Amino acid sequence: MPASERRCSRATAAGVRSRTVAAVTLVEIAAELREAVRRLDFGPPVSHVYNPLDYAWPAHRSYLERFGVAPKEVVFLGMNPGPWGMAQTGVPFGEVAAVRDWLGITGRVAAPAAVHPRVPVRGFDCPRSEVSGRRLWSLMRDLFDDAREWGRHWFVANYCPLLFLDEAGRNITPDKLAASDRSALFPVCDRFLSVLLEDLRPRWVVGVGAFARQRLEAVAPSLGIEIASIPHPSPASPAANRGWAGQAKAALRSAGIRPAARSAG
Q1: Architecture of the structural domain at 34-254
Q2: CA dist list (Å): 66 to 22, 102, 103, 105, 109
Q3: Distance CA 202, CA 216 (A)
Q4: How far is residue 7 from each of residues 29, 31, 57, 84, 216, measured CA to CA in Å?
């Protein structure tokens, strides 16, 4: 019997409700991913690696326990933490105000073992706003109003839990890593993405941006899950700065995805 099934069997035998079992399982999945990426080393151009599953674990765990209950209708997949989002709060696309005020999550955030001076980790005291996270969570709030109603149906995850910085403190996305580093990292992330999707059992998975869609196309078809995508909300994309929310809603409608609570507008 697989380890995840043994865990669920023990929890069920102890009288824990199945919905709670699902949340506990997701926490264990994330803890296993945290340990797996700890064992990886990265070469140039990477100078610093932040792992929020380590130093921001209490907030990340709270997010999983509160909103990671299976099943889901839709799972959105981002690329990896942003320097002023998940790297600060431990929540995917975790712009501080959205995480604190809409999702209702706070928690102690420590700091990475090695911090780049240009990207300090101040947790929920971070004064900067992650634009991508603000746009994504504003869309979720616009579609659902209530975070708990959103969390009953939808979920947001990241493909890779690590933030990579070069010597100048610039963000390095996973697709820009050295080939040898990608070949070590991607199988780990693919494996845990597959486990996460098996646990949440969504009808749709939505790649936030082209890279996330590519990784979903490598993993999700074998699970019988429909794949869609929306543009990435990064301000580095000129298109995202011209009505990103409207573009995202149109992409969701085109895929047949609408919030359970009310029309996507």
Answers
A1: 3-Layer(aba) Sandwich (3.40)
A2: 11, 13, 9, 9, 18
A3: 13
A4: 11, 14, 21, 35, 26
Q: Where are the domains positioned within the chain?
A: 34-254
Both tokens assigned to 222: 């074998």
* pLDDT at residue 262, rounded to an integer: 52
Q: Are 81 and 126 in contact (CB under 8 A)?
A: no
pLDDT of residue 5: 39
Pairing of strands 226-230, 204-208: parallel
What is the rounded distance in angstroms from the CA atom of residue 203 to the CA atom of residue 177? 31
Tracing tokens 């971070």 back to the chain, one arrives at 126
The confidence score (pLDDT) of residue 17 equals 37
Q: Output the pLDDT for position 19.
A: 43
* Helix pair angle (18-38, 179-200), 10° resolution: 170
Q: Is 262 helix (H, G, I), strand (E, B) or coil?
A: coil
Tens digits of residue pLDDT in 174-203: 999 999 999 999 999 999 999 999 999 999
User: Do 204 and 257 touch, CB atoms closer than 8 A?
Assistant: yes
- The number of beta carbons lying within 10 Å of the beta carbon of residue 120 is 13
Smallest Cα–Cα separation from 32: which of 191, 175, 158, 173? 191
Distance CA 147, CA 149 (A): 5
Cα(151)–Cα(221) distance, integer angstroms: 24
How far from 156 is each of 11, 56, 76, 200, CA to CA, in Å?
25, 17, 5, 11
CB 100 within 8 A of CB 136: no
Question: pLDDT, tens digit, for every residue of 135-189?
Answer: 999 999 999 989 999 999 999 999 999 999 999 999 999 999 999 999 999 999 9
